[in-house]
# Entry
Amino acid sequence: MNASVEQQAFRSDARDWLAANFPPALKDKSYRALADKDPALAADLEVWRSRLAGKGWGAPTWPAEYGGAGLGHPQAKVIQEEMEAIGAFNPIPTLAGMGVTMVGPTMLEYGTDDQKARHLRGMASGEVRWCLGLSEPNAGSDLASLGTKAEDKGDHFVVNGQKIWTSGADISQWCGALVRTDPAKPKRDGISFVLLPMDQPGVRTRPIPLISGASPFCETYFDDARADKADLLGELNDGWSVIKRLLQHERQSQTSAGRRKLDNEEPLQDLAKRYVGTDADGTLSDKDLRARLTDNLMAAKAHELTIARITAEARGQVKVSAAASILKNSATRVAQTKAELKMEIMGAQGVGWDGEAYEADELASVREWLFGKAASIYGGSFEVQYNIISKNILGLPETTQKG
Ligand SMILES: Cc1cc2nc3c(=O)[nH]c(=O)nc-3n(C[C@H](O)[C@H](O)[C@H](O)COP(=O)(O)OP(=O)(O)OC[C@H]3O[C@@H](n4cnc5c(N)ncnc54)[C@H](O)[C@@H]3O)c2cc1C
# Structure
């Protein structure tokens, strides 16, 4: 069979499997919408999770022995496209927290056989949720100045310190944490990456409310917490190499601004016509808005095409590299501008917080706009991505502010 015939056959099999296994009641829903608003569909969601996990399609490119399906990226893309076509979604990356998108891919590269055997299946099935303890009150963009200490006690480390903005810490079973293992060494050289269970007496979490209403992250305290040596990811004092790779995976997972088609989202141009009105020829009546809307739609298209080009140049393999910083910033810009436009289009209906005067979509748009602010902060801020682009892609000097 030649490659395109093989791909066609795979698409047809994927379509058949999805038609037979995706619970129709979940059509056009997203995991987040279901979890927040529709507990009645929880049983269907669990059926869907377990079927997907059984097929290895929660993390389709991972090796089958670790709970994946051993597929190539082109096939994974086919699955995603076929899911989108029938209004289906993959809940496993959300259920696994930082597992499938960040810790797992990094573990596949840096982990021991024992770590892979113990941890990856739980991530790929969505049954074990992971959080990431990187940021501290005095170590955000300047992550290398982190102070959380891990003391060597022979077969384990004793961890003391505070992390902040730890997404999902209060609902996670495991944490991947960056800790200082050698305070005598220069900043980046004395750091290690350890994995530790959250369900132990030495770990405490405190949720931090967000302006958008939800509370997705916590302050996390380690007071004599235990991390086994067998769970040191990468070499001792070489956590900086591990984390650089993990952050590239994080940015890679934050690059899909223009591609969300779930929850029957109405195209922005239709929304604008509905709220603002049209001229006699059917075009949007506000010409200035029309121009800015067009700019955003073009930026979204350019972003999508850039991803497609990078993927094509990498021959279908998703190559994690410094280019993820470019895509993260462009995805952020497109999504934030879109949220601003949506609010403007809805006018007074776009700024309500609750009450019967507002449609569900209108209330959602305010929260989307507020939460969208976080995108230029998490995973490394907008400005820090520009620093990475200027240094690692453009080859500019470390700083332009000397003297
Ligand atoms: C929704 C959300 C979820 C998060 N989840 C997690 C998580 O799960 N785990 C975790 O560990 N962290 C998490 N974070 C934290 C996130 O990684 C940090 O907020 C981020 O790295 C920025 O650090 P900071 O907040 O300390 O800002 P700072 O580093 O204090 O930066 C403040 C401002 O100064 C600018 N700045 C700083 N340094 C430079 C520089 N060298 N050049 C130019 N400008 C600079 C920044 O761009 C920013 O605008 C999350 C954050 C958010 C918003």
